[in-house]
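Entry for the shared binder. Reason: the reviewer on the internal report wants the predicted structure included alongside the sequence.
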Amino acid sequence: MTDQPLKGKVAVVTGAGRGIGKSIALTFAKAGADIAICARSQAEIELVHQAVSDLGRNCFSMPVDLADANKVLVFCNGILLEFGAIDILVNNAGVYLERGAFADSNPELWWKTMEVNARAPYLLARHLAGAMRKGGKIINLTSGKGYSAGANSSAYHVSKAALNMMTEGLANELWDREIDVNSLVPGPTATATFDNAQPGQDRSPEDILSAGRDALPKGLPAWERVKHPDEVAAMALQMASYPVGGPTGQVFSLARRPM
């Protein structure tokens, strides 16, 4: 792999204000790509925009609530106005809003989870795939929870299951344009969502990892390991760097357990 395998390419990364999305955006910029990013927090996205610019790459950024279909369209139109075409779409943004039992769940939070985790990737792919160049890549950040029903958090499980199927459907539809579509399962990663952090109490990945296994959420198999977001970004870079004719409709996973 060259030092800049993404030189001359344009990559779109959602949920890039922090965590995995931020790591992917910066990793792709270091690999030579110009970047388009969004996140809900304007303050966070401005910091990432500056970091991308400091690396010498062009950056288009916008604060976007991906639950709002109209704002998703505005974001996509802005990307195409800025760059004309794209090469990589990373559907990273996701929410984990409803963690209760199905019978006790909040219907509004349940459906907003679907809007962000499933409808937004659909809209982004629908709006941007037509402007994706030969050899393009769509990478959907999904979860092992999309492969198992679980006892709670049904909205998250259902949304990620939908995204898994969307990956396979898009792969079947876009292969003849030489666009690859794959899923990336990070497994447990040191992010605010994994940490169940309250607003304003986010810890850095380094702080989460240094706290030790006993201080992390329970339920991990003994052989599982919590990853740094940069490890997920490295896998995303590998996926984005495959030549034409690489894998499509597949699941790449950093989890240390069967799905």
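Summary line for the report: The chain has a mean pLDDT of 93.
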